[in-house]
Amino acid sequence: MKRVIDPAGTDAVILCGGKGERLKSVVGDVPKPMADINGRPFLDILMDYLSNFGFRRIILCSGYKGEEIKRYYGKKSRSLDILCSHEEEPLGTAGAIKNAQALIKSNPFLVMNGDSFCPADLREFMKFYDRKGADFAMVLAAEAGGGDSGAVELDGSQRITIFIEKAARNKSGLANAGIYLLGKKVLDLIETGRKISLEYDIFPKILDKKFYGYATKERFIDIGTPERYSKAKESLKNGR
Predict the structure, then answer these.
(1) Measured at the alpha carbon of residue 85, what is the angle toward residues 84 and 88, in degrees to the nearest 5?
(2) Contact indicator for 81, 56 with CB cutoff of 8 Å
């Protein structure tokens, strides 16, 4: 199959099944990606980010209170083709993608976490993927610190040689930014109907494949805790 490097022809999958237990004290009982950021859902920011790079077909992998996400985006007037893939039980980041397999048309396809944001240049990321002849690629950002962002190391060709999620030490200073380009062959590695993690179950097993890391100088933010959520609101104020 001909490789797809044009965002307009590439599906973008957003993993937005998070329950957000740690955020309930500050955002109430809403799906984590729908947490309010200065008057709008965090998921809106991700949608605008994708749209600005030319992505038009977006698949939302929902879980907890997924009907709220579907209802909200079903009413919005956009130039985007938004589809929803809902999981009845938590399936993990890889399981959610497998659950959406019937909706994924492009090869490769983009994947983003629905509770973090890194303003990497996605067009350059796609060019990098194509130039490397990659099967899989990951955006790597300046490490956020705190020791929970994982250990990622590259060789001289930017191939990922070490990936350990939430490792205690990370010599490279690079962190998984939660943005991936995945060839559709990854779907063959994910068992249907099981809770499976990209970070823990899949990525460590494909280090012998053409798996590359695209390093950006951008930092990433996430909204997983009240403290990080507060910082995210400040960072994203006035569209920054």
Answers:
(1) 125
(2) yes
List the structure tokens of 161. 């040689």
Fold adopted by 7-239: Spore Coat Polysaccharide Biosynthesis Protein SpsA; Chain A (3.90.550)
Alpha helices for 53-175 (secondary structure H): 66-75, 92-99, 122-132
Residue 146's pLDDT is 45
pLDDT over 90 for what percent of the chain? Answer: 65
> For residue 60, what are the CA distances in angstroms to 13, 82, 96?
6, 7, 10
Question: At 38, which amino acid appears?
Answer: N
For 211, other C-beta atoms within 10 Å of its C-beta total 21
CA quadruple 201, 203, 208, 209: dihedral sign: positive
Model-wide pTM > 0.90: yes
- Average pLDDT estimate for 184-209: 95
The domain segmentation of the chain, as residue ranges, is: 7-239
Which residue is associated with the tokens 């494909």? 206
Q: E strands along the chain, which residues?
A: 12-16, 36-37, 40-41, 57-62, 81-86, 109-113, 116-117, 136-142, 151-154, 160-164, 174-182, 211-219, 221-222
Report helix, strand or coil for 146: coil
For 211-222, how does the pLDDT look when each residue is reduced to its tens digit (9 = 90+)?
Answer: 999 999 988 888
Q: Which two tokens stand for residue 199?
A: 């970070």
Amino acid at 196: I
User: What is d(CA 233, CA 27) in angstroms, rounded to the nearest whole number?
Assistant: 12
